[in-house]
Amino acid sequence: RRGNWRFKQTDEPCSLPMLSVDMENKENGSVGVKNSMESGRPPDPADWAVMDVVNYFRTVGFEEQASAFQEQEIDGKSLLLMTRNDVLTGLQLKLGPALKIYEYHVKPLQTKHLKNNSS
């Protein structure tokens, strides 16, 4: 979502509010740069390597929590097998981020993967 602000900023170069938004993006991990890495990830999460999983979570704003997936060697296949309990307790993450990671990312990725592979 944040990436869209960057495009607006190039359309309206004189707009100061857009400029401040751009600065915020750079502070929380240069969002624009990470988005370009998405194209390097295979479209099917089952084909993701550990670093693809880590980069995915960095891209969606879980910079701190992404390293837990690396430490636990979670690749795409492992990610698709994870239960809610695995995410909440197995990664030793704080409960708030862990819930969001499971509900908004792991579960939808699993659902999408199942749909794509059941046809």
Automatic annotation (TrEMBL):
GO annotation, cellular component aspect: nucleus
Domain of life: Eukaryota
One BP term from GO: negative regulation of DNA-templated transcription
Gene3D superfamilies to which the protein is assigned, alphabetical: Transcription Factor, Ets-1
Pfam families referenced in this protein's UniProt entry, alphabetically: SAM_1 (PF00536)
Entry GO MF terms: chromatin binding; histone binding
Coiled-coil intervals: none
InterPro entries: PcG_chromatin_remod_factors, SAM, SAM/pointed_sf
SUPFAM superfamilies: SAM/Pointed domain
Domain SAM: 48-96
PANTHER family found in the cross-reference section: ATHERIN-RELATED (PTHR12247:SF139), POLYCOMB GROUP PROTEIN (PTHR12247)
This protein's name: Sterile alpha motif domain containing 13
Species assigned in the record: Callithrix jacchus (White-tufted-ear marmoset)
